[in-house]
Amino acid sequence: MLQALLISNGLVGLDNYYVSNELVHYTTCLITKDFNPDLMPYDLLVVPNGSDHVAMLKIKDKVRAFLGAGRALVCCDGWFTAWVPGNQWVMDNAHRTQAVRYFPGPDRHGLLQGFDLEDLIFSHGMSGWWACGYIRAAPGAEVLLADTWQRPIVVLDETTTAGRVLLTASGPLADVTYAGQSDSALVTLYRNFIRVLSTSKIPAHV
């Protein structure tokens, strides 16, 4: 079972979106003024929508070391500080959100398998609701989804460090299925990544 550290900015209900299951167990880490977590006991670091990226900048060296040890990171928020190795989120509202569409790119791990792209493009008939801005992707990173203007929106980076990094342009992901409902694209993309991690050899904890 994967051990995941879920970074929390104290948002109410966050734990309801990342629920421990047969593949991954979540431990919540609340950001405080003394925020300085030990990342190495974990396989996965999850930085969800609504996180404190000033606090994350303070531990950027720990994040790089964590990834250098072959661990994994998911960030699905607009990280406006430079704490993610090799990649940077860019805020850009120059284009009308109603024109936003998403287009799949190379996907050698099958992260988009079973994925309904319409879930991310439209919400109650309105487009442009999901992502915000775009990602300035690292050289060699895989752009899983690009937008209408060919800007990276979902990126998988396995080149910058020895680890794996899944990034979205502030588009939230989740690990929960509600009773009587099928998984949304938000859940499918995330869980496909979890399954890839679960079937990979993860370095022993140090």
Describe this structure in words.
The chain has 206 residues and is of the alpha/beta class. The protein is built from four helices and twelve strands. The chain has helices at 53-58, 60-68, 118-121, 185-198; strands spanning 2-8, 24-30, 44-47, 72-75, 88-90, 102-104, 122-123, 126-127, 134-136, 142-147, 152-157, 164-168. The strands form three sheets. The protein has an eight-stranded mixed beta sheet. Strands 5-9 form a two-stranded antiparallel ribbon. It has a two-stranded antiparallel ribbon with strand order 7-8. A hairpin with a 4-residue loop joins strand 10 (142-147) and strand 11 (152-157). The two termini are 17 Å apart.
Helical content band: 10-25%
List the total number of helices: 4
Structural class: alpha/beta
Low-confidence stretches are none
Numbering strands along the chain, what is their spatial order in the largest sheet? 2-1-3-4-12-11-10-6
- Summarize the helix and strand pattern as letters: EEEHHEEEHEEEEEEH
- End-to-end gap: 17 Å
Biggest sheet descriptor: 8 strands, mixed
Mean pLDDT: 92
Please render the helix and strand layout as text:
Blueprint: E1 2-8, E2 24-30, E3 44-47, H1 53-58, H2 60-68, E4 72-75, E5 88-90, E6 102-104, H3 118-121, E7 122-123, E8 126-127, E9 134-136, E10 142-147, E11 152-157, E12 164-168, H4 185-198
Parallel strand pairs: 1-2, 1-3, 3-4, 4-12
Antiparallel strand pairs: 5-9, 6-10, 7-8, 10-11, 11-12
Short structural summary:
With 206 residues, the protein is α/β, with parallel strands linked by helices. Helices cover 16% and strands 25% of the residues.
